[in-house]
Write a structure and sequence with these properties.
The complex is a heterodimer of chains A (353) and B (257). Chain A is an all-alpha fold and 353 residues long. Chain A has a single domain, classed as Orthogonal Bundle (ABC transporter involved in vitamin B12 uptake, BtuC). Chain A is 79% helix and 0% strand. Chain A is built from 13 helices and no strands. Chain A is globular and about 60 Å long. By secondary structure, chain B is of the alpha/beta class. Chain B folds into 2 domains: 150 residues, P-loop containing nucleotide triphosphate hydrolases (Rossmann fold); 69 residues, no CATH class. Chain B has 9 helices and 12 strands. In chain B, helix 4 packs antiparallel against helix 5. The longest helix of chain B has 18 residues. Chain B starts with a strand and ends with a strand. The chains are: A mainly alpha (353), B alpha/beta (257). At the A-B interface, helix 1, helix 8 and helix 9 of A face helix 2, strand 6, helix 3 and helix 4 of B. Chain B: It is found in: Cell membrane. Chain B: InterPro entries: AAA+_ATPase, ABC_transporter-like_ATP-bd, ABC_transporter-like_CS, P-loop_NTPase, Siderophore_ABC-ATPase. Chain B: This is ABC transporter ATP-binding protein. Chain B: One of its GO terms (molecular function) is ATP binding.
Chain lengths: 353, 257
């Protein structure tokens, strides 16, 4: 009797679990590939539209340097490619960084916009613009330094035998308000032209990217996205709590430091290139999870969602609205309702922390 | 020498020592249960044995080597642990959670294989959670959830398994069900199991060996029938009682007076 009861379900479950896993693997492959295609399409589309309309073929030929056509090349490579490339790169960086933060801190609110990193970068950049009269790459370098310093400060303040999600977020909100207060003070001290430059930077726009900053971000992405993929396994274990992660043989402190460093550098470079673009990091991970299935937490899909969001936001900001707006305005307009929805549903489920 | 043992082990948090100078042998192929009053150091000892806490003094040895000198990844292939309150990401499904138990057997580039499929399937079958694979963890009852966590620890496929109060928050029926499951695992695969347990009667009923602790020291250890007496319960828990044989299994049963 014993053999029949143990053998029969074994066969059934072997099938059930394998089928589930296969379905998940293929779903994740399909979603990731579709996202990649969508991002490529949006990337080309942003370069097609504008006062001088181009076909997809012309854009692709010009970007890949397949054909020589000075006027098309001027519009595409000279004017539109830098903006499109920075929207792509910043979106990828913010999407990846956002989901890493949210998973590490086990809280959907824990995106870099909310834990003081954007504000730290902003404060450093504005200080540079107003007090030191710098511009261009120097502003970005300061933003990078500010983001890293803010992240270290948060780590020191919030870390106590591992981190409780809410503690980190409350300290982050406090730090954000403090930094924003200082930014306001800086602006009151500024010359009018400096203040204008500073405000433009603070709104966040992919159109303001400087070529050398962009190259730095693209280089960092080539290095850090594969790093993030390698650390994905560690991240999934850390999600189960430090004790479980350690029991699974993960070196928790090292893995967490590596993941945080990756996310902070990605955020910092994105902010350095485009200014503090809000909400992309917050929504990219949850949208990717919606597409992939709950708690899948793929870093690459989240990065692709981030890129798709930012490219779309840029299209809307520059072409669909009556007057061209900075990208940050559009992401803010989309992100704020999401945040309200998140707060409402999180409270209802009682599962925010 | 048993596979897992500790010598002169002192453990603590911050500057407070909780467990001092313990020598422990975890009997191979047996179920050991650690019992004692709240804050006696039983969970601390378990965390020490599972390398979650670094010893202040002394060492824990696995197969003759100090845990602190082994790679944590290698240890995870031999020694599994289910913590007291494991966390699960919101919305995670049973299949996804149990599959994460395979991490010690994967490397930077070695991903999922047939062996992983087999181990997860065995774990799901052993715990009776196979028909839950597509369900989100948070929709399950407390008893089902705990069995899923045990399945995750089993998927790790280790010779030794440590569990920290696995029956907390479960009703009596599910407590017994879980402990029966541990007995079955021990009987079928010879797994060495160490459990920190609150309930002394259940510990007597389901263990081969009990370790009774008080104030960070081991007061008594041995087979339940030999060790658990009214004097011991008085000493460890401060409870006046009589100890009678369990009418079903004959193991010691504590009845307060």
């Amino acid at each position: 009797m014993k053999t029949t009861t143990t053998v029969a379900p074994q066969v059934a479950t072997a099938g059930a679990f394998r089928a589930t896993r296969r379905r998940r693997t293929s779903r994740s492959l399909v979603v990731t590939c579709s996202l990649a295609v969508a991002v490529c399409a949006l990337f080309v589309l942003t370069m097609m539209v504008g006062s001088f309309q181009l076909s997809a073929g012309e854009v692709i030929a010009s970007v890949l340097q397949l054909r020589e056509d000075p006027s098309v090349d001027f519009v595409v490579r000279g004017l539109r490619l830098p903006t499109a490339a920075s929207a792509l790169a910043v979106g990828l960086a913010l999407g990846a960084a956002g989901t890493i933060f949210q998973q590490l801190l086990r809280n959907p609110l824990a995106s870099p916009d909310f834990v003081g990193i954007n504000s730290g970068a902003g404060l450093a950049a504005i200080t540079g613009i107003v007090l030191l009269q710098v511009s261009g790459v120097a502003v970005s370098a300061l933003a990078l330094a500010g983001a890293v310093a803010a992240a270290l400060l948060m780590y020191v303040l919030a870390w106590r035998d591992g981190v409780a999600g809410y503690r980190f977020i409350l300290i982050g909100i406090g730090a954000t308000l403090f930094f924003d207060g200082l930014i306001g003070y800086m602006l009151t001290r500024a010359q009018l032209s400096d203040a204008r430059q500073a405000m433009h930077w603070l709104t966040g726009s992919v159109g303001q990217a400087d070529a050398s900053e962009l190259r730095l971000l693209l280089g960092a992405l080539l290095l850090l996205l594969p790093t993030a993929v390698l650390l994905q396994r560690q991240l999934r274990a850390l999600e189960l709590g430090d004790d479980t992660a350690r029991a699974l043989g993960i070196r928790t402190e090292l893995s967490r430091a590596g993941l945080l460093a990756t996310a902070v550098v990605l955020t910092a470079l994105a902010v350095a290139v485009a200014g503090p673009i809000v909400f992309v990091a917050l929504v990219a991970g949850p949208i990717a999870n919606r597409l992939l299935g709950p708690a899948t937490g793929g870093i690459i899909p989240a990065a692709l969602v981030g890129a798709a969001l930012l490219l779309t936001a840029d299209l809307i900001a520059v072409h669909l609205l009556p007057t061209a707006l900075p990208t940050g305005v559009v992401t803010g307009a989309v992100g704020a309702p999401y945040l309200l929805w998140l707060l409402a549903t999180t409270n209802r489920q009682g599962a925010g922390g | 020498m048993t596979r897992l043992h500790a010598e002169g082990l002192t453990l603590g948090y911050d500057d407070q020592a909780i467990v001092t100078n313990l020598d422990v042998q975890v009997l191979d192929g047996k179920i050991t249960m650690i019992v004692g009053a709240n804050a006696c150091g039983k969970s601390t000892l378990l965390r020490g044995l599972a390398r979650l806490l670094k010893p202040r003094h002394g060492a824990v040895y696995l197969d003759g080597k100090a845990l602190t000198e082994m790679s944590t990844h290698e240890v995870a292939k031999v020694l599994g642990l289910l913590p007291q309150t494991p966390l699960a990401p919101d919305g995670i499904t049973v299949a996804d959670l149990v599959a994460r138990g395979r991490y010690p057997h994967q490397g930077w580039f070695r991903r999922w294989t047939e062996r992983d499929d087999d181990a997860v399937t065995r774990a799901l079958d052993a715990t009776g959670t196979a028909d839950l694979v597509n369900r989100p963890l948070r929709q399950l009852s407390g008893g089902q959830r705990q069995r899923v966590w045990v399945a995750m620890a089993l998927a790790q496929d280790t010779d030794l398994l440590l569990l920290d109060e696995p029956t907390t928050y479960l009703d009596i029926n599910h407590q017994v069900e879980l402990l029966r499951l541990l007995r079955k695992l021990n009987a079928e695969s010879g797994k060495t199991i160490v459990v920190v347990l609150h309930d002394l009667n259940l510990a007597c009923r389901f263990s081969d060996h009990v370790i009774a602790m008080a104030e960070g020291a081991i007061v008594a250890e041995g087979a339940p029938t030999e060790v658990v007496t009214a004097e011991l319960v008085e000493k460890v828990f401060g409870l006046a009682c009589v100890v009678v044989p369990d009418p079903v299994a004959g193991t010691p049963m504590v009845v307060p007076t």
